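Fold it.
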Amino acid sequence: MLSNWNLNRNNYKFNEISNFDIARISKLTDENVQSVIPISYTNHKDSKNYLTDEFIQKEYPFLHPTFESVITVLALNLSVCNTHNLEIYLEKIGALAQTICMNNSSNHVVNRPVKQVIPKNWEKIDKFKRNKNLLPFYAVITTVV
């Protein structure tokens, strides 16, 4: 387990991916802006997208649950995705993950893309419970070391 990770909000500001970044990447991939949706979660209790320590520990056992991290899930919007051209969406997910990493790069900041996004585990999370067309597919973890 990686410990001693602490996203100190007094010293570091997490940059969520902007609509401009998403639109620019959509132009490059020539795909609908809403085909891949980034959703940022944290274990910071005041956040609107809060993840419990138990969930984080179960899903990502290498993270120490008592320190703050931001997990940005890249979800496929199944209602607008064309299943015959999945490689286009995978390219878009890769480009968005790289953009998140570049936007949040700084001294002592780790951005870790993770393939381990198990949809059935995320189905219990409110955003995915309410919208069955969202498939959690990929993630980027950002934290300060």
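The helical segments are 19-29, 53-59, 86-103, 119-122, 126-130.
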